[in-house]
Amino acid sequence: MTVPLTAPTLDDLFSRWERQQAAYVAHRQNRFQVMLDVLDLHCPADLTVLDLACGPGSIADLVLRRFPGARVVAADFDPVLARIARSVLARHDDRATVVETDLVSADWPSALPEERTFDAVLSSTALHWLSPGQLLAVYTELARLLPPGAVLLNADHLRFGDDRPALRRLSAEHDAAVQREAFTGGAETWERWWDLAARHPDLASLMPERERRFADRPPQPPASLEFHLAALRNAGFTEVGTVWQYLDDYVVFARR
Ligand SMILES: C[S@@+](CC[C@H](N)C(=O)[O-])C[C@H]1O[C@@H](n2cnc3c(N)ncnc32)[C@H](O)[C@@H]1O
To answer: Is residue 211 within a helix (H) or strand (E), and if so which, with residue range?
Structure first.
């Protein structure tokens, strides 16, 4: 993708985000497709969805496009990505609300609109930033927040451990091949996308606050599928499993 000389628009940055993320996440659209199909099969037509760690609003936008009766609350701690999400999701009028909240903080649900009852929580490529303890705490809060029958769908890379070296190796090789092909085809890297975002005047002014908020967030060791399923059961979900897998990339399902 060629880098424009002028500052990109927020819509342009959203499109570029989609392509940039697809360079790192093989079959990203397939993950989303499965999530939307589960919502279609399981939830009422006037569903309310929480997009957890929404980034610029990728899942929220797909949900609102597919389900005309849906409402979405999109939550993230990044002020830059939340600013893009507010702009992009404004095309759905008042069906979308964007809130800023830190999933590491115990009272993160206090940022959610009080009157909302969620039929589903969707998240993608995000919860791996949490430590095992923080992840269990978020799952526990979600189990408390969701009414019986509501579902959680979490799409993420769940790495194979030392006990499955061949699966770990071939998943890593596949990731590297997907990235090589995408970047050769002109997709932007994560770093290049952020350089571009910093050229937008509204976003440039939010960059110092973004740095401050994420100053002390070390990458976490990868959690296994088995850890996620056990944590969800411990948190109080009654039925847990997977609805999609491609190598070490999963969509985990949990029903309250
Ligand atoms: C790679 S992005 C994925 C965004 C979007 N879900 C997608 O699939 O394109 C990871 C997101 O997790 C968010 N995130 C990381 N740690 C967080 C935290 N403690 N609280 C809320 N959001 C967080 C980041 O700000 C970022 O938007």
So the answer is: helix 207-213
Topology (CATH level 3) of domain 10-255: Rossmann fold (3.40.50)
Residue with CA at minimum distance from ligand 1 atom 14: 53
Rounded to the nearest whole angstrom, what is the distance from the C-alpha of residue 173 to the centroid of ligand 1?
A: 25
Burial class of 135 by CB neighbour count within 10 A (0 to 12, 13 to 18, 19+): buried
- The span from the CA of 82 to the CA of 155, in Å, is 20
Atom of ligand 1 nearest to the CA of 103: 20
Q: Give pLDDT tens digits for 58-96.
A: 999 999 999 999 999 999 999 999 999 999 999 999 999
- Per-residue pLDDT tens digits for 156-172: 999 898 999 999 999 99
Say whether pTM exceeds 0.70. yes
53 CA → ligand 1 middle, Å: 4
Q: What residue ranges in 77-222 does DSSP mark as E strands?
A: 96-100, 120-124, 151-157
Our CA angle for 204, 189, 87, nearest 5°, is 40
CA 182 to chain CA centroid, Å, is: 20
